[in-house]
Amino acid sequence: MDTTLDRREFFIDGEWAKPATEATAEVIEAATETVLGTSASATEADIDSAVAAARRALPAWRALSPTDRAEHLDRFAAALRTRAKQTAALTSRENGMPISLSVNVNGYAPSLMVGYYANAVRGSERDEVRPSAFGGRTVVRRDPVGVVAAITPWNYPQSLAAMKLAPALAAGCTVVLKPAPETALDAYVFADAAVEAGLPPGVLNIVPGGRETGAYLVEHPGIDKVAFTGSTPAGRAIGEVCGRLLRPVTLELGGKSASIVAADADLEVFAAQLLEVSLVNNGQTCHASTRILAPRSRYDEVVEAVTETVRCLRIGDPLDRETEIGPLVSAAQRDRVLGYIEAGRWAGYRVTTGGGAPAGRPTGWYVEPTVFEGVHNNARIAQEEIFGPVLTITPYDGEADAIEIANDSQYGLGGTVWTTDEERGLAIADRIHSGTVGINHYQLDLDAPFGGVKASGLGRELGPEGLAPYYCAKSVYFATR
Ligand code: NAD
After folding, report:
1. Using a 6 Å CB cutoff, which residues line ligand 1?
2. How remote is the CA of residue 68 from the centroid of ligand 1, in Å?
């Protein structure tokens, strides 16, 4: 495997474009703390070029029939699929994600999403003719919204980019993708695949860069819609700008979801899924159910089940298929998470397992998976998004109390209910104020909308609902003849 991997150009107008300046950014490997590669880092002039290319490409791309666009996307999906294993390994090296997860979410998921949206538009009609209630008829035309700015974070870089560019391209929009600097290298896989698939020049443009570059892109007069995934503070800043500009925006932001363990829960089922539901991707997952709510009648049992399960998780090299917890993405993220663990201790909460950096791993930004018990829901560690492998357990008295605690959060993205009675699970899910809820499991579905309420964001991705924001309806009225 390469020890360094440099990508010092942008992908603009179907070509490898020389950056306007010498600015670059190093991508550091999470497990080794060494330089994995260097990417070009976009400045305003590079963004101007990328947006101009996307604007030039828009008329021809939107004029294609949906079926012709679907054929392009099929070739694009195939080119992504052939790269899936290498993409997964590259991303794991960038952000520390265990490879067993990365193979699916970074490797194969993007091609599945591109294929899904190709199928969603294939054979579809642009126009719907409706008889007018007042005589005559109206043609309701679905136009693509235009040039899309897609801005993505480092935690699931491939899936989160594909959730935006797949529906955008299928709808007839063109895209400027600005990936996070921490995971800039894997973003170039989309460019490699676009070249192999023969996507028309300018339809997809890729310009890694930092926060300021993202902010410049959001405000750019050539952008018609912004699709953002990232932190709530950045989402608020972007939402404010888009509000002022009256620019459509989708915001997928942070979370602090609750796992309600009902009194009738099967704790074996719950424990078996704890890693996937609450600690997935080393806890760097927006929808993770990190607040565990346990009925007081079974509190000790829940604490024991969680503690034993978490204690046994295998910490290791993210490229090892046996690894369950890898390193965090950066030193800053590791320090932030350790700071929260300190804050929890300082507030007097008991750590039942974990609680620091693991012994014997001097290299790599590892944090032990950590459990706090007896945590009041108003504690900082229960209210703020830690974005690391830290769980809290809070007792509750009765279902109404559990629901109140679950909803006592600024966020509303995910949540899980653990019960042997699915009807009861659905009734509880109904009262959880969030965009998604899992019953005895949590798994995003390609065909179902994903997104949040409250500080978790605006709008939905995936499913038909994830395609709709990339269209703009136009009504053309015809008189009676
Ligand atoms: P971040 O907000 O710092 O950065 C995300 C992306 O936005 C990066 O590309 C960054 O360069 C860019 N950016 C930052 N500020 C910007 C601004 N003002 N204008 C334009 N672009 C800007 O987030 P992060 O630390 O990279 O990611 C972690 C956060 O993302 C967590 O809060 C997590 O919950 C959230 N997240 C949400 C979802 C979801 O679907 N709801 C999914 C994954 C991650």
Report:
1. 151-156, 160, 178, 180, 210-211, 214-215, 218, 229-231, 234, 237-238, 252-255, 286, 385, 387, 413, 452, 456-457
2. 33
The 10 Å Cβ neighbour count of residue 351 is 17
Assigned token pair, 144: 């693509």
Under 8 Å between Cβ of 27 and 6: no
- Round to whole Å and give the CA distance between 244 and 377: 35
Q: Output the pTM of the full model.
A: 0.97
Asked if 91 and 186 touch (Cβ cutoff 8 Å), the reply is yes
Separation of CA 153 and ligand 1 centre (Å): 5
From 43, 105, 155, 333, give the residue whose CB has the most ligand 1 atoms within 8 Å, as the site to mutate: 155
The pLDDT value given to residue 20: 97
Q: Establish whether 286 is a catalytic residue.
A: yes
Give the DSSP per-residue string, 430-472. Answer: HHS-SS--EES-----TTS-B--EETTEES-BSTGGGTGGGEE
pLDDT of residue 71: 98
Residue 1: per-residue pLDDT: 44
Separation of alpha carbons 366 and 414, rounded Å? 25
CA 60–ligand 1 middle distance (angstroms): 32
Cβ neighbourhood burial of 16 (10 Å; 0-12, 13-18, 19+): middle
| Amino acid at site 133 | A
Tokens 């915001």, located at residue: 251
Strand partners of residue 128 = 140
Residues of the chain with pLDDT under 70: 1-4, 481
Q: What is the pLDDT of residue 97?
A: 98
Phi, psi of 365 (to 5 degrees): -90, 65
Read off the pLDDT of residues 406-415 as tens digits, 9 standing for 90 and up: 999 999 999 9
